[in-house]
Amino acid sequence: MQPIPASKRAGSIEYAIRDVVVPATQLEAAGHEIIKLNIGDPLAYPGLPTPPHMVAAYIDALQSGRNGYSPSYGIPALRAAIAEDERRKGWPAQAETVYVCHGVTEALQILFAAVLEEGSSILAPGPHYPPYMAYPQMYGATTVEYRLDGKDGWCMDFDDIEAKMNDDVRLFVLINPNNPCGSVVGRTDVDRLLTILEGYPKCILVADEIYDGLDYTGTHVSAASCSTTVPVVTLNGVSKVYYAPGWRLGYMALHDPTARMANVQDALERLLRSRLCPSTPAQWGYLAGLTGDRSWMARYARRVQDQRDYCLQRIDEMEGLELQAPGGAFYMFVRLTDERWAKDDKAFVLQLLQEEHVLLVHGSGFSPEFGSGHVRLVFLADVEVLKDAFDRMDRFLTRHRTTA
Ligand code: PLP
User: Fold this and answer.
1) CB of residue 104 inside a 6 A radius of ligand 1
2) How close is the Cα of 358 to the center of ligand 1, in Å?
3) Distance from the alpha carbon of residue 331 to the mean position of ligand 1, in angstroms
4) Which domains does the chain have, with CATH numbers?
């Protein structure tokens, strides 16, 4: 019997963050304990649970029978609460143009389907969160990476952006704070970017701000709040700042200061209706997070920041690793300075895993061009676990330096 063919487009999809989990799972099955610093899931580490009042609201929705389909764009009270939250960030968001989705990931797929065509392109940061590369090609589009400067805090290279912008670029992606680099873009750079985008009237700015509550610099701004001319789609949700990634809930909020998005809005709404709705009980849980007590947020962020500071100190003391300190999120993108590993970051990750049972993600998985020679480290584990992980990395680097 002939095997049934799969689509070519699926064959080219890769997700580095989960790809390295396969060998780690094999080691675990053989009885080894792995220190996993690979995944940006706060629930994978003890100490940062989903806030109890959000969990209670989710459970209450389940128990009181709110288990039916919700309206396709989200329950009205949640859309209103999200709009209010975005207004607090400085722009006139309206509930009618907030669309609740199954995470930012679904929002992206719907946005790409609504805007991109054969021959269109999107500009995304290099390095970037992998779906920005994987999904656009499903719609015949191409992702072009603009350079983040690994020698200067991973800030945007505006010359590179200007060289790569053209009329086929329909979406420009700003991930702020950035995954995997943890860099934070402030007002001056957002304004400079908007000035460039003003010259391209068919282009929408996609502002992925899913880590906005984890800004250790105090300089983060909502891109929509800076724009009076360029249309902006803001993305956010429960996964990171509300510590509930398994709920699969996020949103896109449209800012259309020059009234040019009517066709795109219509396309988005058609696509949203055709996939029915996001999870209903999860929406009630998110609503409790947005409307309830938020004092816990600063406490959680402080803990994550302390863990970041510990990693900075260890990397500073270690030979073989170099870092542009992250200003936000819970990632650091660490440069491998030993030539052998700089040339093959995936070999570093796989060998470190085999020999020391520490799991990181290779930088080339976030961008072969701009991420190679790096590894991404997630600093969500507590300091004791991080200490163990850094001791092992140090041992590994030293051993291989002397045997090289
Ligand atoms: N956007 C960025 C930049 C991310 O890093 C991630 C997850 O790591 C997501 C979106 C995923 O968001 P969600 O869980 O809402 O699909």
Assistant:
1) yes
2) 23
3) 13
4) 8-49+295-403 (3.90.1150.10), 52-291 (3.40.640.10)
**What is the 16 CA–ligand 1 centroid distance (Å)?**
14
Asked if residue 404 has pLDDT above 60, the reply is no
pLDDT at 21: 87
Look at ligand 1, atom 12, and give the residue with the nearest C-alpha.
104
Q: How would you list the strands of the sheet with 142-149, edge to edge? A: 98-101, 250-255, 232-237, 204-208, 169-175, 121-126, 142-149, 155-156
283 lines ligand 1 (CB under 6 A): no
Q: Among all chains, which residue has been given the structure tokens 């001791």?
A: 391
State the Cα–Cα distance between residues 105 and 251, nearest whole angstrom. Answer: 9
Output the pLDDT for position 222: 98
Say what the pTM is.
0.96
| Pocket flag, ligand 1, residue 241 (CB < 6 Å) | no
> Residue 56: what pLDDT?
98
* CB-based contacts of 344-352 (< 8 A; 24+ apart in sequence): 345/371, 345/372, 345/373, 345/374, 345/375, 348/375, 349/20, 349/375, 350/20, 350/23, 351/396, 351/400, 352/392, 352/393, 352/396
Q: Is the distance from the beta carbon of residue 210 to the nearest atom of ligand 1 less than 6 Å?
A: yes
